[in-house]
Amino acid sequence: MVKKELINSDRLVRLFCELVAIDSPSYHEEIMCATLKERLETLGLAVTQDDAGRHYHVSYGNLLGFLPGSAGDPAKVAGSRPAKEESVERSQLPPLLFCCHMDTVVPAIGKKAMVHEDGTITSDGSTVLGADDVAGIVSILEALQILQEHHLPHRPLEILFTMSEEVYSRGMLYFDMTKLRSQEGYTLDLTGPVGTAAYAAPSIVPFTVVCKGRAAHAGFAPESGVHAIAMAGAAISRLPLGHVDEGTTLNIGGIEGGKATNIVPEQCTVTGEVRSLSHKTAMEQLALTRHIFEEEAARFGGEIEFSHYIGCKAYATELSQPVVRRFEKACEELGFTPSLVKTFGGSDNNCLAQGNFQGIVLANAMNRCHSCEEYTTVEELIRSTALTLALMCSDE
User: Fold this and answer.
1) Which CATH number fits domain 4-202+312-392: 2.40.50.140, 3.40.630.10, 2.60.120.260, 3.30.1490.20?
2) Is the CA virtual torsion 16, 19, 23, 28 positive or negative?
3) E-assigned strand segments in 163-317
C-alpha cells in the first residue's frame, strides 16, 4: 500500500510555488508548457507536443507523456515489499491517464503563492492563486518523482497537460484522441475535499442573441422606433432563469445596447448559457429560449439573430466502472472517505468522455476557484498527491 510518508512535502510546496509564479492565462501558456515538458522528460517520460495552438496563433499545444509500466525493485521499495510476481502483473496492466490543464483564469499576471503558518496557501489578493490547476499538476509531478525515487511498481501511465481549458477546453478541441493508449483515467480539476470525485458533468451551451429594432428620436418620435432593449427585456422576463429543473440551469449573463439617451435603441446584444446534465435537455432549453426571443421580436416588429456553440457536452460515468471502483479502493486504503458527486462545471473530461474513454474528475486541493480568494493547503496537496500515487500504483 502506498504511504503518505513517501511524499516530500517541502519539495511539493516548493514546486507548487514555482509553477504558480509562471504567468499562464489561457492562450499564453508558452513558459508553463516548456517547463512541464522538460520536467516530464527529466522524469523519464516520452513526451510529444501537438499543434493545437496553431488554431489560436500560438506556437505550443497539448503535452502527452508516456511512462511504461514497471515491476519495480522489491529490494529498494521503501516500506512494504510486494511479491515480484504481483509487481510484474501490475506493470503489464492497461495504462491509466492523468490529465490537468496548464492555463489559469484572470487576473493571472504576477501571481505569487504565500504560504501561511497554518499551512494555507493563498495569493497576495491581487490575482488568482492558480491552484486551478497547478495543484493537480504538482500532484502528478510529485507522484512521478516518488515512483522514480522509491522504485515503486506501477502500471503504464499517460500524462496529458492541456492548453486553454478554462475557455471551454479549446486545447482539447484539437487534441487527437487516437494518440491515447489509455481507455480510462483521472482528470484532476475539481474543487472540494480530496476524496471527492465527479462522475457526471453537464453540457454547457453559451448563446448570443442580437435583437434588432429601429432607431428613432426618443423625444420627437419615439413611437416610430422599435425599442431593441425593451424587446430583449420582454423576452428575458419570460425565461425560466436559474434552475429550470434539478439538472438544468439557464442564465443571462450580459446585455448591451443603445447609443445615446435620446435615441430609441435599434440593437441590443444578450449573452447567456444553458447548462444541463442531459445534452438533450440542454438543446431543448436552448430551442425554447430562441423561440421566446423570436416571439417577442415579432410582437415588437423587430428581428433577432441567434447563435450558440457547444462549450462542452454532458457525460455520466457508470459507478460500476473500474475507474470508479479503483478510486474508491485507493481512498479507503489511504483512510480518505470517497464521495462521488455530480458537478455543474465542465472539464477536459467532458471531451475525453465523448469517445470510449471512461473517466472521473478528482478533487485536487483547490478552493474558491476563479476568484482572488482562491486557496489551497499543504495538507490537501499532500492528500491529492497520495491519491494520485496510489492510483498510479494500483493493481486493478
Assistant:
1) 3.40.630.10
2) negative
3) 184-190, 196-201, 203-212, 216-217, 242-245, 248-257, 263-264, 267-276, 303-308, 315-316
pTM: 0.92
What gap in Å lies between CA 239 and CA 60, rounded to an integer?
Answer: 42
- Closest by CA to 43, choosing from 149, 133, 124, is 149
Q: How confident is the model at residue 74 (pLDDT cuts 50, 70, 90)?
A: low
- What whole-number distance in Å separates Cα of residue 163 and Cα of residue 29? 7
- For residues 170 and 163, what is the distance between their CA atoms, to the nearest angstrom? 7
Q: CA 107, 273, 249 angle in degrees (round to 5)? A: 110
Which phi and psi (to 5°) does residue 317 adopt?
A: -90, 130
Spatial distance between the Cα atoms of 80 and 95, rounded to a whole number of angstroms: 23
Separation between Cα atoms, residue 75 and residue 322, nearest integer Å = 30
pLDDT-wise least confident of 62-76, 172-186, 332-346: 62-76
Once rounded to an integer, what is the mean pLDDT over residues 124-134?
97
DSSP code at position 336: -
Contact call for residues 336 and 4 (beta carbons, < 8 A):
no
Please state which architecture CATH assigns to domain 203-308.
2-Layer Sandwich (3.30)
Q: Which amino acid is at 389?
A: L
Q: Rounded distance, CA 124 to CA 53, Å?
A: 31
- For residues 53 and 180, give the distance between their C-alpha atoms in angstroms, rounded to a whole number: 19
Q: Which H/E stretch holds residue 147? A: helix 131-150
The CA radius of gyration of the chain, in Å to the nearest whole number, is 24
CA dihedral 148, 154, 155, 156 (to 10 degrees): 0
Contact between 357 and 182 under an 8 Å Cβ cutoff? The reply is yes
Q: What is the mean pLDDT of residues 278-293?
A: 98
Query: Cα separations (Å) of 187 from 198, 280, 310, 340?
Result: 10, 25, 20, 14
Confidence of residue 81 (pLDDT cuts 50, 70, 90): very low
- pLDDT exceeds 90 at position 176: yes
- Band (342; pLDDT cuts 50, 70, 90): very high
CB atoms within 10 A of CB 396: 12
For the segment 166-174, the average pLDDT, to the nearest whole number, is: 95
Reply yes or no on whether the pLDDT at 88 is more than 50.
Answer: no
Domain regions of the chain by residue span: 4-202+312-392, 203-308
**How far is residue 159's CA from residue 63's CA, in Å, rounded to a whole number?**
8
